[in-house]
Amino acid sequence: MDNFTSLLDCLLRGLQLSNKKTFIYRVVYVGQHTYQNLNQLFEYFKNNIQKCNSAFCDEKLSGFLLIYDSLLIHMVEGSEESIVNHFQILCDDMDNSADLSNLRVLIVWPHVPYRKTSNWFAYKGTPNESDNVITSTCQASPFVQQCLNSMCRLAEALDQKLEKGPSGKEIDGNTLTLETVPSELVSKLPETGQVMFLTTCSVLLTVHKMLESTSEIPRIPYSEIIWPTPSKYIPRDVLKDR
User: Fold this and answer.
1) Quick check: is 226 in a domain?
2) DSSP structure class, residue 55
3) Domain that holds residue 149
4) pLDDT digits 0-9 by tens, 190-214
5) What is the dihedral of CA 195, 73, 129, 36, to 10 degrees?
6) What is the pTM of this model?
7) CA angle (67, 149, 29) in 5-degree steps
């Protein structure tokens, strides 16, 4: 039994090798904004991320915010708890302000093997015009996939560009500024029409709904008092006297 290796041993060993304290989640969401000054929007999200990272967090938030004139796409990476904290601040602020609206989650990637970005940064951009006609009858899934692919490619390319630049361009520094997407990467930007369509797509969960789902246990009718119960059921009355 001296050589016995448990699943926990394997898990801890894997986290140690990857220099992680817990699993990393990656979330991508889109939204609309009414900021005339894009630097103000950038400052708002920068302060949100800094607030989450300055508090206790087992895995800090990193990611990439892409800003258009009236739209935004945000990729956030970190522990589940850190991302929930980010959403909580976002929802609290949205309840008191109309500057942000229609924030919808494209995907939640649990247990990603590595981060796309080493820090958090933001860029503004204007995508090339597209001749694609988008109507209310279009399917959301192709647009979601195209948007995710574009964001992943952009995040990796821009992260490498920042690593070669001044070391002061990090979330903890004061020199981080909102820059424009380099011309050679403009062709990789998600189309404006697709992003606008996704912000109004009812099949995608809003950030508010996503936040609620992390704190509420769904009530599923289940009459049998057995243990262990199927994993999709929660036996709320297993200890109740009959």
Assistant:
1) no
2) S
3) 23-215
4) 999 899 999 999 889 999 998 888 7
5) 110
6) 0.79
7) 45
